[in-house]
Amino acid sequence: MKILVAVKRVVDHNVRIRVRPDGSGVETNGVRMSMNPFCKHAVEAAVQLAEAGQASEIVVVSIGPKAANDVILTALAMGAHRGLLIETDDNLETLAIAKLLARVVAEEQPDLVLLGKQAVDDDSNHVGQMLAALTDRPQATFASAIKLSGGALEVTREVDYGRETLALPLPAIVTADLRLNNPRNAALPMVMKARAKPLALRPAAEFGVDLAPRLRIENISPPPERVAGQIVGSVADLAARIAAEIDAMEAS
Amino acid sequence: MAVLVLAELDNGILSPATARIVAAAAQLGPVDLLVPGPHAAAEAAAGIAGIAKVMVSDTDLLAESLVALVSTLAVRYRYLVSSASTLGKDVMPRLAGTLDIQPVTDIVAIEGENRFTRPIYAGNALETVIDNQARHVLTFRASAFRPAASGNAAPIETIDSPTASAARFIAAHRSESDVPDLATAQIVVGGGVAVGSTEGFQLIEKLGKTLGAAIGATRAAVDAGFAPNDWQIGQTGKIIAPDLYIAIGISGALQHLAGIQGARKIIAINADAEAPLVKIADLALIGDLFEIVPQLTAELERLGVKR
Ligand SMILES: Cc1cc2nc3c(=O)[nH]c(=O)nc-3n(C[C@H](O)[C@H](O)[C@H](O)COP(=O)(O)OP(=O)(O)OC[C@H]3O[C@@H](n4cnc5c(N)ncnc54)[C@H](O)[C@@H]3O)c2cc1C
User: Fold this and answer.
1) Looking at ligand 1, which residue's alpha carbon is closest to its atom 37?
2) What is the pLDDT of chain B when averaged over all its residues?
C-alpha cells in the first residue's frame, strides 16, 4: 500500500499568538513554527502501518513557503520515505489546498491519504473532506483508530455522541484526531538520515490550479478579554453564590 | 434568499442544536430544513419557528450519502447550512468541494448577508470574512446562537434517498447518559486530570446532577481514561456557552479555554491560585477538589438547590 500524508507548517501550538493592532492578521514574524499537531498524528499512523508491513511507501507533501521544508524533514525523520514541497508564499484557502492535493493524488495514486483533521492556525477542518470530494473517494474524519484488514480499512471516529466505526474500501481519505497514537520524536540519527531522503520542490503555479482566494478577510481582532474576578473564602460562600446565580438564571 | 439547513440528529432524535441553527439561519432568509432520519424527527422539527418546509429522507448519516442528498437540492438555495458539529464538519466541507465553493465554518456571528465572524487560533483571534461567492456553504456554532421558538407546523415532504456511501457503518459506541447536551447546556461542570480517576469523576457527576448540569472534561482527563471522549471541551472537543461553567482541577490551557469563551460566568476550583483558569474566572475557590467538591454538593443540597 502506498500512503500520501499531507502536513502543514503552523505557529507552534504552545505559542500564545498576538493579533496585530491594525487588524491585518496574527503576528507570525519571529514566532516559533512547527508541524501542526494533528498532521504529526497522521504521519505517525502512516509510519506505524509501514512498520507493520502494511505500507511500502510513504510520500509526504506540504504546501507553503520554502521554510515548510522543516516540517517535511520532520516527517522524513519520523519514517516517511520521500517528500514534496509545493511552494507558495501565499496564504492559500482550503479549497485551493485541496485542489493542489488532488493533483498530487492523481500523480501519485496513493491507496490511502492521511491528513490531520484540522490545522491549529485557521482551525478550518476542511481539507481532507474536500480532497475526498475532489478525488471521489470515501472518507473517515477524526480517526482515533485505524486498522487495515483484507484490503479495507476499519476506522474508529471520535464524534459528538461518542465513537463510531466505519469500514472503508481503498483508496480512501482519513483525517487524524489526537487520540490516534503518540507521535514519536525522531532520534538524531533519523534526523541526519532524513536529509539524504529525496525532497522535491515544485512551485504551486506549476499545477495549473486556480489559486485565487474566494473570500476576503476584512479584519482580524482579538477576542473580548476576561479579567480575574474574586477569590471566595469558603465552600459555604461559594455555594451561596452559586445558588444566587441559579435563582437569577431561572428568573430571567 | 432561501436557506437549506441540514438538521442535526442523534440516534434518530432531533438534537437541541437544530433549533439554534435554524434561528441563526433565519437571519439570512426563509429556511427549509432537511432531516436525514426518521419521520418522527421530521415531525419534531416541523414545530421549530421560522421553518417554511421540512424535507425528510431516511438516509444513513455518512458524508458521501449526505453530500449526494444535499447536492441534488443545492441549486434551489443560496445558503447551505449546518451546525459545526462532528456531523456538519464531516459533511459540509465535502459538499463544498463537490460544488466548488470555499466554505465558511464555525461561524459565531452573522454580520450581514455575506459577512461572517469565526474564531481562529483556538479562539485567540476572531476573523471577519466577506464571502462574495454566488452560493454559500456555512456551519454555525450552535452555542453562539439562541434557539428558535416552537409552535410552528411546517409542511413535511418526503424525498428519495440517493446512492449509498462506499464507506459502510459498522458500529456506534455511545456513552449512555441522561445528563443535558454539553453543547447547549445552561450549566456545565468540568473536571481536569487532577480528578484522578473515573471514581473521582463520580464526585463531579454528583455535583453536576445537583445542578442539573452537563459534564465536561479536559483532554488530559480524557486521554488518561477518566472520562469519555465526548466530554472533551476545547479546541478539539466541544464548544460550550453555558450561563455557568464550574471548572474543577483544570489548569486552563489555551486549547481548553478555546471551548469556554462563550461561558457567561466561570467558577474555578483549583489548588493553584496562579492557574490560568483562576486568572480568568469570575469566582474562584482555592483548595483541594477532593475536599471541596463533596462539601459543595452537600451545601447546595442543604440550600435546596435542585434542578
Ligand atoms: C493540538 C492540541 C489540542 C488540544 N485540544 C484540547 C482540548 O480540546 N481540550 C482540552 O481540555 N485540552 C486540549 N489540549 C490539551 C491542553 O493543552 C492541556 O494539556 C489540557 O487542557 C490540560 O488538562 P488539565 O487542565 O486537566 O491538566 P493540567 O494542565 O495538568 O492541570 C491540572 C490542574 O489541576 C490542579 N490540581 C491538581 N490537583 C488538584 C487538587 N487536588 N485539587 C484542585 N486542583 C488540583 C492543578 O493546579 C492544575 O491547575 C490540546 C493540546 C493540543 C496540543
Assistant:
1) B194
2) 96
Q: How far is A81 from chain B (nearest CA, A)?
A: 29
Q: What is the pLDDT of residue B177?
A: 77
Q: Please spell the DSSP secondary structure of B72-129, one letter per residue.
A: HHHTT-SEEEEESSHHHHHHHHHHHHHHT---EEEE-EEEETTEEEEEEGGGTEEEEE
The candidate with the shortest Cα–Cα distance to B131, out of A93, A107, A131, A71, is A93
Inform me whether the pLDDT recorded for B1 exceeds 70: no
Mutate which of B67, B121, B266 to disrupt the A interface (most A C-beta within 10 Å)? B121
Tell me, yes or no, if B306 comes closer than 8 A to chain A by beta carbon: no
User: What number is the average pLDDT over the span B155-163?
Assistant: 90
Transcribe A135-171 into DSSP letters.
Answer: HT--EEEEEEEEEEETTEEEEEEEETTEEEEEEEESS
Task: Report the residue among B124, B188, B256 best suited for mutation to probe ligand 1: largest number of ligand atoms under 8 A from its CB.
Answer: B256
pLDDT of residue A101: 98
